[in-house]
Amino acid sequence: MNKEQPCQLGSGYAVLSLVIVIFIITIGTFIGGVVFLEKKEPIGGWYLGLAIVLFVANMIACNGFMILLPNEACLYTLFGSYVGTVRDSGFWWTNPFMTKRKLSLRSRNLEGAKLKVNDKQGNPIEIAVVVVWRIQDTAQAAFDVENFETYVRIQSETAVRHLANSYAYDHGEEHETTLRSGIDEVAAALRTELQDRLSKAGVHVEEARLTHLAYAPEIAQAMLRRQQAEAVIAARQKIVHGAVTMVQMALQELSDKNVVHLDEERKAAMVSNLLVVLCGESEAHPVINTGTLYS
């Protein structure tokens, strides 16, 4: 596994000044060589040869200039060997025979496609994520994987599939984290798994979040009816619990304040009537008894 190491470069402005001076000297030497040749002096050829050498050297030296923007890095290799990485922005000059490769250090978004996978309980679901990542180790990103962007995309898809298989969609065991109820826990687990997978490529995962979560179309209607039934049952349980509490309170108040004394049969009838009134979905229409209580 490769590790990033810093590379020291020279100031581009200082070398540029030197290149300009040498270029001026080259022009003067070339003109001097032409003048000497016109005078039939042999030294003119030496002047022209020196001018050509200076010109070629200057052109080669110009290949060593490099401009680096903020949040940008440049890797240098010399004849196949890794030399180092430069992260400081500015105008630099280095060995013109070294090969350079620029990499962006900015944060990037990977918006994953909708994937159809099975959750922990085997239900088909659709899931999609967005991953925010950036290059942390340029040497690993450049040399340890074939294409780090493709690597991030494929490994992210694999991690999402594994995540979906590890959690139930929304009906897990008691106190169990599910994809719907444990959004923060699921996101933290996804980020941890992505970091483990992508660290081989020198990638740092800043954030990972679910952007889409739903049952697959073939079971969506059935699951919707299941959720509606569970909601109705839960509502009924609350209504019945409240109604029983109110009936108990009413009977207790009547008994404590000696308002009326009821036998067990009349209590049962009263409880039945109160439960109908309190638990019924439509408004109850009472029937007034004008006779005695037992008629």
Structure overview:
This protein has 295 residues and is α+β, with helices and mostly antiparallel strands. The protein folds into three domains: 95 residues, no CATH class; 108 residues, Band 7 domain (Tetrahydropterin Synthase, Chain A); 49 residues. Helix content is 49%, strand content 21%. The chain has seven helices and ten strands. The strands form three sheets. Strands 7, 8, 9 and 10 form a four-stranded antiparallel sheet that branches. Strand 8 and strand 9 form a beta hairpin. Helix 1 packs antiparallel against helix 2. The N and C termini lie far apart (95 Å). The mean pLDDT is 81.
Number of individual domains: 3
CATH architecture of the largest domain: 2-Layer Sandwich
The first-level CATH class of the largest domain is given as: Alpha Beta
Percent helix among the residues? 40-55%
SSE blueprint and pairings:
Layout: E1 10-11, H1 12-38, H2 43-62, E2 65-68, E3 72-78, E4 81-86, E5 90-93, E6 99-104, E7 108-111, E8 115-118, E9 124-135, H3 138-143, H4 148-166, H5 183-198, E10 203-215, H6 217-256, H7 264-279
Antiparallel strand pairs: 1-5, 2-5, 3-4, 3-6, 7-9, 8-9, 9-10
Helix pairs in contact: 1-2, 4-5, 6-7
Summed up:
The chain has 295 residues and is of the alpha+beta class.
